[in-house]
Design a protein that fits this description.
72% of the residues lie in helices and 0% in strands. With 466 residues, the protein is an all-alpha fold.
């Protein structure tokens, strides 16, 4: 059974079964584009928002170790992603990897899980983007009316978060036009935020007071691990790189480079920024919406605070764009396999992008971003990502056993040790999340299984070949 599943999912067999003109995506991305997309997706909310909240509420200065723990977990997962992305270079990321290694039902669960992950991540990031924009405009004397600057209940008088809606719709148009154009836009945003981060590090390092690092772990090791589960949100963007495999030139070579290089660069920057930030400001004072800008203000660099805020907007914009790019490609892959309705996998005749799924994603995200608060949106994101990462790590072990002869342009080292460590780290972080998050996650998965047994299992490409 696994043999037949794998052959149907492996790229050469997929292309034999598909109407190529209707379903093939345009290959235009190189290793540099993928690395930029990865950095664009990873650096954003993590550095500019979560670092301060995790330090103040969970880990103290030990948030540095929280980023190390999350980075290690992502490195294990990234090595597994790199092997599978080079071996199975098709759109759909962890969904396709699970399909090839563990079968259709597990693939559905992962695909459904990824839909949740990307949608709530996009909503949370869009709301965060709106908050920074409103703050910057207010600083320069432009007051956004309260009624259109937030979701109902977040601020007295707020009716709708109009900036969040507008940014999602604008980026959706960019993504429909083309993946290469999206990569170019992201390149500009990435350059701006990297310069911003470097300026903060260079300016802030001279204002670090080692006394602020004591006590280093005020909440103990448990707090550090809990902080790692929270800041894990900062790393989830590298998964979006693998969703673009089918639009990548020479994916066997370029996918591993893009995934691992972007992950490595971002992990180093996160650790440095966490060290500088907690060294500049006592951790108890960092629970603010813009902790990096706040640190610059306390240090007397008001121009630096404005620069950081502008860089945060650019950074969060690129995160949102890459997240919005990843979600439709999950829809696209599941629809192409018959698990979702076929009209979802239509490709634009001119732009060669999955425009139907892109537009659906944009409308759904924009709608929710306009009317809910950021806390509600972000609660489910980490558990879904960790679950997907664990499946990918397990998939490498399964595929090594079932198909040892498969050509692997990139091979994860120390198998099965590295994949099993990836599963263990992800499981540990999942167990550190609140019980309510687990309840909501299980409810979502049960709803997905209902759809699968009602529609997917009877209409899948696998079912039509039985």
């Amino acid at each position: 059974m696994i043999e037949s599943l794998f052959r149907r999912k492996f790229i050469h067999h997929i292309l034999e079964d598909l109407d190529i003109e209707k379903h093939r995506l345009h290959r235009s991305l190189n290793a540099f584009d993928l690395t930029v997309l990865g950095i664009g997706a990873i650096i954003g909310v993590g550095i500019f928002v979560l670092t301060g909240a995790a330090a103040a509420k969970y880990a103290g200065p030990g948030v540095i170790l929280s980023f190390v723990i999350s980075g290690i977990a992502c490195t294990f997962a990234g090595l597994c992603y790199a092997e599978l992305a080079s071996s199975i270079p098709v759109a759909g990321s962890a969904y396709n990897y699970a399909y090839a290694t563990m079968g259709e039902m597990i693939a559905w669960i992962i695909g459904w899980d990824l839909i949740l992950e990307y949608i709530v991540a996009c909503i949370a990031v869009a709301i965060g983007w709106s908050g920074y924009l409103v703050s910057i405009l207010g600083a320069i004397g432009i007051q956004v009316p309260v009624w259109c600057s937030g979701a109902p209940g977040t601020v007295p008088g707020a009716v709708i978060n109009l900036p969040a809606i507008l940014i999602v719709l604008v980026l959706t148009v960019i993504l429909v036009i083309g993946i290469k154009e999206s990569a170019r836009f992201t390149s500009v945003m990435v350059l701006i935020k990297l310069l911003t981060v470097l300026v903060f590090i260079l300016v802030g390092i001279s204002h670090v007071s080692p006394a602020n690092w004591h006590p280093f772990m005020p909440f103990g090791l448990k707090g550090v691990v809990a902080g790692a589960a929270i800041v894990f949100f900062a790393y989830i963007g590298f998964d979006a790189v693998s969703t673009a495999a089918e639009e990548t030139m020479d994916p066997q070579k370029n996918m591993p480079i893009g995934i691992l290089l972007s992950l490595g660069i971002c992990t180093i920057l996160y650790i440095i920024v966490a060290a500088v930030l907690t060294g500049m400001v006592p951790y108890k004072e960092l629970n603010t919406p813009a902790p990096v800008a706040y640190a610059m203000t306390l240090a007397g660099f008001h121009w630096g605070s404005a620069l950081v805020s502008a860089g945060a907007v650019a950074g969060i914009t690129s995160v949102l764009l890459v997240m919005l790019m990843g979600q439709p490609r999950i829809f696209f892959a599941m629809s192409r396999d018959g698990l979702l309705w076929p009209w979802i996998s239509k490709v634009h005749p001119r732009f060669r992008t999955p425009y139907i799924s892109q537009i659906i994603t944009g409308i759904v995200v924009a709608g929710f971003a306009g009317f809910i608060d950021i806390g509600t949106a972000a609660e489910l994101c980490n558990i879904g990502t960790l679950f997907a990462f664990a499946i990918v790590c397990g998939g490498v072990v399964v595929l090594r056993k079932t198909h040892p002869e498969l050509r692997r342009p990139f091979r994860c080292p120390l198998v099965p040790l590295i994949p099993l460590l990836g599963v263990a780290f992800c499981a540990c972080l999942m167990l550190s999340l609140p019980k309510i998050t687990w309840i909501r996650f299980v409810v979502w998965l049960l709803a997905g299984l209902a759809i699968y047994f009602y529609y997917g299992i009877r209409h899948s490409r696998l079912a039509t070949k039985r």
